[in-house]
Design a protein that fits this description.
By secondary structure, this protein is an alpha/beta fold. β12 and β13 form a beta hairpin. The longest helix has 24 residues.
Amino acid sequence: MALEHGGRVRAAAGRYGIPLDSWLDLSTGINPDGWPVPAIPAEIWQQLPQDDDGLLEAARSFYGTSVLLVVAGSQAAIQALPSLRAPCRVALLAVSYAEHAHAWQQHGHQVCRVTEAEILQTDAQVVVIVNPNNPTARRFSVAELLELHERLAASGGWLVVDEAFMDATPEHSLAPFCPRKGLIVLRSLGKFFGLAGARVGFVLAENTLLDELNEQLGPWPIAAPSRYVAMLALQDTGWQRAASLSLQAASQRLTEMLARHGFSTVYRNSLFVSINIRNSASVHEKLAQQGILTRLFEHPASLRFGLPFGENNWARLDAALGRLKR
């Protein structure tokens, strides 16, 4: 059974009878002001993907590591990695991106859901951490994760760190510590770069594991146009610096707006803000009736807000939140 994700604005348009172009979609955590994609040369569309097109070099420079594998979004790696180990105990955060637990369970592993305090001390053979976590925004330190990795690797275990929301804060990434035996870091161009439709991600790990994963995924996992766009985005350091600053400012602005409307239990990173409230389903519904889509979580009851783009949309959200009180 497929898991539910954000971004289902077409379904929301049908459900609430609001035209598609009238929605403000805040359900995904994708940068709403993403990297500006240029026109793609016609010859790129006519070529099979080529490993020597410059993408790997751009990615190695961006992530600060020499060994990585390009995949069709980090989701492809999430689904394939569990097949590379015999069934074992896998520890994941009880509240986190649900596809990880689903994938390990599908391959016969025993999944243990633990708290953020417990996960650093677990005796599982594999530990999967989304860092910063989604939707709680909890960020584990480099020192904490390296200590956990050292303990796991000593007994042949794995630490899998999904850094889908890390790009705006690279100083907290484990990417520069790769490759290390038993350390697997997942990165994606979907969130920070706003290129979710390109379906480009990377796995940072030791060569042996990447060779096995590459064999599993097969040839040409990324279309040539996506490779071309990804290479240019990874090379655009000026845009990256500006985006990091603007996203941090927008996240702070959204946090302050939510607090002003009475939502004080706020957790945030550079791409989304989450609030824990008992009536989260009611708030989600009332915002949807106004054409504003948020991401609803049941356990714990919470809402995640992506960042609005443009002053009109900031004002629209502010007004909609104000109507909740009335």
